[in-house]
Every structure is written in C-alpha cells, then in structure tokens.
Predict the 3D structure of the following.
Amino acid sequence: MLLAEPRGYCAGVDRAVETVEKSLEKHGAPIYVRKEIVHNRHVVRTLADRGVVFVDETDEVPEGAVLVFSAHGVSPAVHEAAAARNLHTIDATCPLVTKVHQEAKRFARDDYDILLIGHEGHEEVEGTAGEAPDHVQLVDGPDAVDNVEVRDPAKVIWLSQTTLSVDETMATVQRLRERFPLMQDPPSDDICYATQNRQVAVKAMAPECDLVIVVGSRNSSNSVRLVEVALGAGARAAHLVDYAAEVDPAWLEGVRTVGITSGASVPEILVRGVIELLEGHGFDDVQSVTTANETLVFALPRELRDARRA
Ligand code: 2E6
Ligand code: F3S
C-alpha cells in the first residue's frame, strides 16, 4: 500500500471548518452556512448533526441570523443580499480564493478581458466571475477556447479556478495563447499550492499502482482531478470514494500495489478507514510517497481569532 503525501486537508479547508466550529461555539446552534462549507459529504453531515443548517441562498436564512460563507467564496452580489437581510456574516472564503478575486477586480478596473479558466457551475468560478461580470469570460477547458472572443487582443489576461488539473490548464493556456499571443499571465499561480502538491504526489505514486483509491466527494473539484491525474500518470485503475464501505472488493482482484490519496477537503479519519479495510485484504506493507511538506496555516476570520484552538 502506497500513501501519497501530501494528501487531505489544506490550510484553507482547515480554516473553513474551524470557522464553522468556532462560530457554533460562539453563537450557538442554529447557525447557517451558504452552500457546503467544503465539498465533503462527511464534513457536511458531521456539522449538520451539530446544528449547522446548510442553505443554498441567503433568502433561506432568517433575518438577523449568523451566516457563514463557504471556503469557495462568494460574489459581491451575495454579500449585498446578506447585508439586505441584516445577516451576521462570517466569511470562510479561502485566502487563496480571495487572492484570485482581487486579481479579477484589479484587471477589470484596468479594463482587461479576463479569461477565467474553470468549471462551469462551480461555486468558486461563480464567485470570482461575479467580481467583474462584464469583464470575465469562463473558459471550461481546451475545447472551449475556439468560442472565446475579446475586444482587444492586446489587453487580455487569463486567471483560473484554484483546483484545476495543472496539465489540463496549461493545455488550455497554450490554445488561448495561439489565438491571443499577447495574452498576459496571472501575477502569481492561481492553482493553489495544495492542489499542485496533491497532484505532484499522486503522479509520483501512480506509475507503481495497479489501483489508486482517491478519498473525496463527487462534487469536489480537486478530488476528482486526482483521479484523472492518477490515470494520466499511469495508474491502471483509479476510483473516487467518500467512505471505505464504497471500495468494491472486485477492484482489488489481481492488484499487487494500491495507492491511496485524498482531496483537500477530506478528513484523515476517512483515509484511515480505507487503510484499515485494505489491511484486512492483506495489504500490510505500507509505505509513503512524499513529494512535499506543507506547513502553511491561515489565521481565522478576525472576529473568531481569540477562539482559535482555545
Ligand atoms: C475552496 C476552494 C478550493 O470543489 P473544490 O475542490 O473547489 O472544493 P473542496 O471543498 O473539495 O476543496 C477545498 C477548496 C475549497 N478548494
Ligand atoms: Fe484554498 Fe487551495 Fe484549499 S484554494 S481551500 S488552499 S484547495
């Protein structure tokens, strides 16, 4: 059994989950969270059991209640809608998503056409695009490039969602650059350190693996990307599971080496469950494949800071 490192929680998820926990402690149940705080079924279920009410939109929240914005970020229109209902808002947006929002605002102010590479319908791109809807066009992968139109090819920049496949994004950028040779690059990487590190680790592990199991939820962009990256890097098979119970014993037939990793929104306890299941199937030689060490920690939102790990 090979264990990819790094895997699991990133600094932004750790901060977002702790933000909800501390908000519960400080304000008492119920508190409300717009969308899933992070895209993980287990995290959402556990918090719901503790009195967190997950809603789709601000209009489902009673006037004056506490509302936490999810790690994926929200547009200015959502902030305004919450203010109009006098909601007490706490923003758990990952600081690395906020950074992309700032870039979108800055280049919109300078009247650039902004080509936002990302997945249609994902909450993060809805929030980022909402910073400058008149300047942002979504580009959902290399095949979407032919449909892009810009006003001035000398004033174009690409930005991206934080959780994309690095390789697919570079393919999209290359196609864009063929059409718009003067296109500018983002001031810094938008695909975040955690997404990149988890992809590098699974790439290092995958060629050795007959099977890679990625722990993560279907709606978790970075988790789904790990399955694709594993397959692209030579794993003979790769599957996404939320829980150990979803591992199909048929997947293990003829498998000598199995690799395990997990998305940035996945608690380690779920990975433990998969490791124990595989140990039960005779995979008792466990080794790590480590490609980076992560030490980044983000401060909690200001109003909760005194409460951190109190
Ligand atoms: C916020 C921003 C980026 O679907 P996605 O991978 O974006 O989200 P999660 O919640 O699975 O991962 C963490 C995250 C939060 N990534
Ligand atoms: Fe943030 Fe990247 Fe995690 S954008 S929430 S550090 S996956």
In short: The chain has a mean pLDDT of 97. The chain has nine helices and twelve strands. The first helix runs from residue 11 to 27.
